Amino acid sequence: MEKRYDVIGVENLIMDLALRIDVLPETDGIVSLKDFLWQSGGNASSAIAALSRLGAKCAMVGQIGNDEFGRFCLNDMKYHGVDVSHVYEREGMTALCVCLAEEATQGRSFLGRKGDNPPMSPQEVDEAFIASAKYIHISAAETSAKELAIQYARKNGVTVSFDAGGYSERAAALIDLTDILIMSHQFYRGLFGEDENYIANCRSLLKRGPKIVVVTLGAAGCAGTDGVEDFTLPPFSGYPIVDTTGAGDVFHGGFLFAHNQGRSLKECARFASAVSYINCTSLGGRVGIPDLEMVETFLATGVIEAEKLEPRKAHYRNIMRFI
């Protein structure tokens, strides 16, 4: 079958409210709100937004509520050039996540509310649509389309990429059905505890089916293997980190973009790390997503052309009036 898409993401869309604070307040306390911004979010969804901004041809399969947040999320995917013909509107609320970015710790905390997302039908997931992609990208978030999309992908030779963020036994079971596994440090600890033999433990997961296993380690960088090439990479540094929300999401997007170009495993990880690092210099999970030229310039010179992000910042500032 002709591959119309580079990557199709499978996830219900999520609305984000990004808040920048000094530190989380104590009970009955108050802290100053330094900045806030409405954006769309979601693990797989933000990876797809990053992929499309870099130049990949992408689509989403999932749901939104028939509320203002749902319309915002749908329009935001369109803003990134993503095909949303297989994102379905449902009666009820779109999922909402409040993302708290702490300056003091450079950490983030989340408050989440699930959306009203009934099960999707096999006709809505659409085997022919899934088969028209080179990759599908899934997350650990509950999405009724996910299992069927994986089944269709494996049947039709579509590479399955899994963003293993939050650990659960149900999420861990997806390892066996995955070709590219990129896991958070939290997910890694759910499997291996505090064992820091990252390469050896990643290699052990290759036996379960994945062809590539990577663990992202935040301020410690990342490590991984494909069974032939092992790598460890330190994080980039030199620019202030504003918000790490979405860092892992856009890392996945950058990795898949580079992998689709045929780059080596280490180069895929280095490219993905650059995408993630640049994104972390802005508030929220999507404002700082760079285009391909920005990434290549940064990798070659170490310079982030921050002025190129100003139109995106203005876009999200202005679009707030529609909420």
List the helices and strands and how they pair.
Blueprint (H helix, E strand, L loop, with lengths): L4 E6 L3 E8 L11 E9 L1 H12 L3 E8 L2 H12 L3 E8 L4 E8 L5 E6 L8 H4 L1 H5 L1 E7 L6 H10 L3 E6 L4 H4 L7 E4 L1 H8 L5 H9 L5 E5 L5 E4 L4 E4 L13 H14 L4 H15 L12 H10 L8 H10 L4
Parallel strand pairs: 1-4, 1-8, 2-6, 4-5, 8-9, 9-10, 10-11
Antiparallel strand pairs: 2-3, 6-7, 11-12, 12-13
Helix pairs in contact: 1-9, 9-10, 10-11
Descriptive notes:
This protein is α/β, with parallel strands linked by helices. The protein has one domain: 3-Layer(aba) Sandwich (UDP-N-acetylmuramoyl-L-alanine:D-glutamate ligase), CATH 3.40.1190. Helix content is 35%, strand content 26%. The chain contains 12 helices and 13 strands. The strands form 2 sheets. The protein has a 9-stranded mixed beta sheet with strand order 5-4-1-8-9-10-11-12-13, with helices on both faces. Helix 5 (146-155) links the parallel strand 8 (133-139) and strand 9. Helix 1 (43-54) crosses helix 9. It starts with a strand and ends with a helix.
Rg over alpha carbons:
19 Å
Q: Largest beta sheet: what is the strand line-up?
A: 5-4-1-8-9-10-11-12-13
Could you state the CATH homologous superfamily? Ribokinase
Largest sheet: 9 strands, mixed
Number of strands: 13
Multimerization state: single chain
Please tally the helical runs, counting DSSP H or I stretches of 4 or more residues.
12
Helical amount among residues, as a percent range?
A: 25-40%
Number of domains: 1
Q: Looking at CATH, which topology would you report?
A: UDP-N-acetylmuramoyl-L-alanine:D-glutamate ligase
Low-confidence stretches: none
By helix and strand content, what is the structural category?
Answer: alpha/beta
- First-residue to last-residue Cα separation: 41 Å
Order of helices and strands: EEEHEHEEEHHEHEHEHHEEEHHHH
Shape: globular
**Fraction in beta strands:** 25-35%
CATH class: Alpha Beta
At CATH's second level, what is the architecture? 3-Layer(aba) Sandwich
Give the mean pLDDT: 94
